[in-house]
Amino acid sequence: MTIDPEHIRNFSIIAHIDHGKSTLADRLIQFTGALSQREMKEQVLDNMDIERERGITIKAQTVRLDYTAKDGQKYILNLMDTPGHVDFAYEVSRSLSACEGSILVVDASQGVEAQTLANVYQAVEHDHEIVTVLNKIDLPAAEPEQVAQQVEDVIGIDATDAVYASAKSGIGIEDILEAIVEKLAPPDAGDSEAPLKALLVDAWYDAYLGVIVLFRVLDGVVKKGMRIRMMSTNASYVVDRVGVFRPKIETVDELGPGEIGFLTASIKQVADAAVGETITEEKRPTKEALPGFRPVQPVVFCGIFPVDAADFEDLRAAVGKLRLNDASFSYEMETSAALGFGFRCGFLGLLHLEIIQERLSREFDLDLIATAPSVVYELTMTDGTKTYLHNPADMPDPVKIESIAEPWIRATILTPDEYIGPILKLCQDRRGIQQDMSYAGSRAMLVYDLPLNEVVFDFYDRLKSISKGYASFDYTVEENRIGDLVKMSVLVNAEPVDALSMMVHRSQAENRGRIMVEKLKDLIPRHMFKIPIQAALGGRVIARETISAMRKDVTAKCYGGDATRKRKLLDKQKAGKKKMRQFGKVEIPQSAFIAALKMDGD
Amino acid sequence: MPALLGLYIHWPYCSHICPYCDFNVRRDRGRDTDFLVDAIIADIAGNAIRMDEPRALTSLAFGGGTPSRLHASQINRILDAAECSFGFLPGIEISLEANPADNQGDCFKSFAALGINRLSLGIQSLNAQELQFLGRDHSPKEALRALDFAVKHFSSVSADFIYGLPGQQPHHWQESLQEIMALGLEHLSLYCLSIEPRTVFAKRHKQGLLTPLEDDLVADLYQCAQNMTAEHRMNAYETSNHAASISARSVHNLLYWQGDDWIGVGPGAHGRLSIQGQRQELATYCRPQDYAKAVSENGWGIQLQNALTPQQDLAERIVLGLRLRDGIHLEQLQDRAGASISRKNLSELIAGGFLRLNNHYLQATKPLLVDRIASELLC
């Protein structure tokens, strides 16, 4: 028997990092008694170490809460904790479409941040009712009235009924639960007799249960033993477990319209359970798939290499395993003259890149070198064909290229207005085009179109540093735009070093070139001869530095007792040579490549 | 040409430890040191009986530490033992390192009377401030006085100086060099200060209390010394050693650089010796007590004995040999080591102007880069 959708509320929580989303979720779980005090551990929902440490959510999570409201009725509240970061914007949109409402959590002392803004707009787009929660009202710096005003001014939603709360101190928790029941819409009644139609919200790999699929039922029911079909791939599976999270796993007989839960069905890898997929029945498939499905599209790329070439096979195994659990991460083998064998990996964004790198080194205990992130360039050739350039080293002969396009983003920056000057300059320096600038109180909102290439370097770090950490930043990837893009090569002692070449906008080439050669000057150790370092566009040198010849490398005292030490030093140098890459007569230490490739823009 | 044989005797005790020194040294706490002399004597005999065939000594050198702290009677017993066990070749060089402050009651005179014919005096500087910085326990005046005595008693006298002190500018060093040259010595060792690990200076460096000179400035100072010594016909025959004539060169130290054989006795002494046609790396126990115990238990003080591979042997010979201005005899070098230098590396370095072959001798053209050149040649 399925549950009456009238008594179901599906909602997500939207908040900026540190505004208390996880703590609030914990309180709701605690208040409704889903977990005993003993079972509560901080931030129950963030399963991965990285999630807990960094206070971010990577995978969507749900918790089913039983709540008896003040009207005496029993409700099932499905709390959906969605990834809070723009890198996972698509995942967020799927999570939001599985809910009817959202709780917007805003730190009453900090106010609205850019990330919140992007997600709340998405929620509004999904026709969500929104309950505003002003959190941390017990902090001395809390200014709930001003922040409520800001929510109205900046976001444009009514905040007169905002709930004042402190998740940490347990203030206002019941008010939030009441607001959810009263203000948020119940799910559509659906048709429990109709063929199954369910939205695949997220999926992840569990060591014991295999791939766990999180879904929301629109029509029909899901039950154990049923043969289901993924509509985009046509693959079919037999459901071997249906359940809900409370947050502990609890198996149920079936889940019907409006309900959120999970299933397992001997699915081998997460890639077979794509987010946004429509799940239906094998026997009587639903006619139409749900709208909005989109295959994964990596946006940012970087090379990942083992520090020790001997670890390559371990790295291969590690990326393979990660991919099993994260279908949005892609990789292919890459060989670099400088760094040996590794992988060119694709990510949803910079945070995703960082998370994957961290998981690789942490969960698989690998020492890795990651090259500077880059984007994919769309090359239109003179014969009309298009190719995609992932690695500047693969750049075809420029005479065969008609045009080069690069991905652009639309960035939203929220900042205290005192930092607006330097931020405008930063955006301008990064070829940004201003779309909007508005003020709400002492906070400014800037909307800029920027080439992603200019952002992947160190834009975020720069933004944080010039605003003393106060500015927040968010973006959505827009279209590719044609630009005057060129490949900048680097020559060390007149030998081209492909691993250091990069795509740059012509207007930035000289600046980038100068920074690169200056940096290399410090990174490449002196040799017994002078070494010119040049940055060049085609045959034209745009920047040059010279490493002067080493003048002294000799031990002052060297007698009979020093022979052993000197010999061992030579052995060490020999071993060290293996970590050098030879370019003509010049040896470049691997560490120099790493530092140069990590190069930031300023 | 068969290899020559030298004997090195390490005397580890010093009145105090200099802040730059990373040798195997101990503070002399005034305890009886005869146990160590006894051990050294037994070790000399132990080494002699392990030789393939009897070989007489070309040189005998007392180093340290501060061997000038040995009593004349102790030196006498050691010399007797060495002569008795090995025999001395005619014209043997018997040298001793001395501290200017140690010439109490003109002990130099008695040292000379025992047959020591070369004295190397650790003056280090003629500038009071620099001496203080270097933690030396003598004044410039005392140094000059000790030097007078040394010149009076020994046919061959050398003095050590240290340059490249933090803050030292070429003109400072220039002035010091003028004073040094005015001493009229036939042999000089001019060492650039290096900050060695586990020394007081290393600690100060780490704490930011001491800033070593930049390599480029050191190179300038080195060049100053080359120019000044050349003017006085005291060119360097080795990276840091200058002599007025071939006969003024240190016979014992040349054994090291030329790849001959040497035996090391005393705590923490190293030796290189061919035993049954194979080059052996030898080293004694570092702590005097451990050393003495090993001698009494095993008949010698060796802690480490390791047969060098031909490649290892070659590497050592090159690192040491390229320090000589005259270079190393290429065929003899490869013959003695039983290994060959990479032709490719050799020709590249010659083409690059870093090495030259001069009448069978392989010479480094840039004395200040010899470590690097050796490394390039061997890697």
Polypeptide structure, described:
- The complex is a heterodimer of chains A (602) and B (379).
- Chain A is of the alpha+beta class.
- Helices cover 25% and strands 34% of the residues of chain A.
- In chain A, the strands form 7 sheets. In chain A, strands 11-10-16-7-8-15-12-13 form an 8-stranded antiparallel β-sheet, with helices on one face. Chain A has a 6-stranded mixed β-sheet with strand order 2-3-1-4-5-6, with helices on both faces. In chain A, strands 22, 23, 24, 25, 26 and 27 form a 6-stranded antiparallel β-sheet that branches.
- The longest helix of chain A has 18 residues, at 506-523.
- Chain A is globular.
- By secondary structure, chain B is an alpha/beta fold.
- Chain B has 2 domains: 5-256, TIM Barrel (Alpha-Beta Barrel); 325-378.
- Chain B has helices spanning 34-49, 72-85, 107-113, 128-133, 140-153, 170-182, 200-206, 215-231, 251-258, 288-298, 310-321, 330-337, 343-351, 370-378; strands at residues 5-11, 13-14, 26-27, 57-64, 88-98, 118-124, 156-163, 187-192, 236-238, 241-243, 261-265, 270-275, 278-284, 302-307, 328-329, 355-358, 361-364.
- A 9-stranded mixed β-sheet of chain B has the order 9-10-8-7-6-5-4-1-11, sandwiched between helices. Chain B has a 3-stranded antiparallel β-sheet with strand order 12-13-14. A 3-stranded antiparallel β-sheet of chain B has the order 15-17-16.
- In chain B, helix 1 packs parallel to helix 2.
- The interface between A and B is medium-sized, with 22 and 47 residues.
